[in-house]
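User: Can you write out an input/output pair for a complex, sequences first and structure second?

Assistant: Here is one pair. Inputs:
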Amino acid sequence: MSEKESKTKNRKIPQHIAIIMDGNGRWAKARHLPRMAGHRAGTENLRRIIRACTEFGVKYLTVYAFSTENWKRPKDEIDGLMQILSDVIDRELVKLHEEGVQMRHIGQMEGLPPALQEKIKSAVEKTRNNDRLILIIAWNYGSRNEIVHAFQKILLKEAPNPEEITEELVSKYLFTEGIPDPDLVIRTSGEMRTSNFLLWQSVYSEWYFTPILWPDFDREALQKAIIAYGKRERRFGGRFKQQKKEIYAD
Ligand code: IPE
Ligand code: IPE
Ligand code: MG
């Protein structure tokens, strides 16, 4: 395959997919099951989607699993969700590590149960040299919180003059430091809003909304989203033909 062809091919696979995994509660309700059964089914599905991403050659997968606003939910649901993340790390980490998956966390650590904080940190540490797939768990994550947090750190560490505050500097202090912006953001369950997810990073992402509830969003559904992405024209504010010339210039 010529270099030109391979570039064309790679352009069709998003390097970074971010997913707002929504609809677990409705999935459970439709089956007359408790909400936790929906969250567990959602977790099972994540395992399948991680594998599909490695198969399709996606390099970064970010999943929105617990938002800074999800603290508004009843305590038993919150406790159950924290327990699920803890169990997933216990149960899946060794296998994910063997498969070359690197785990990262974005979101605020403070406020999480201390034992869970330790578990997340050690999972991140254990897998830090893996590079087959970077799995980024957004847990206790909110974009506004992230941006405020970034400014606090910038002021503390850099004490910059106003003109020294640049987009690069802000990006450097976000939880996503070093991670390329998502190419494709998927939200399941029919809702069409960001719910405070990756506001800074997704300005030029392609958004894809599907009515499928997260536990039912399978490999085929992901493939369909990737195909739809491949048909989009990304212009980044420029003009497509001109851009194309730059990308495909010999
Ligand atoms: C998404 O499913 C998971 C989390 C937000 C933790 P929901 O729990 O929001 O499910 P619905 O939206 O009520 O169906
Ligand atoms: C967004 O879903 C957050 C996650 C999927 C973790 P929500 O269900 O919390 O969002 P809203 O409340 O419908 O906007
Ligand atoms: Mg929801």
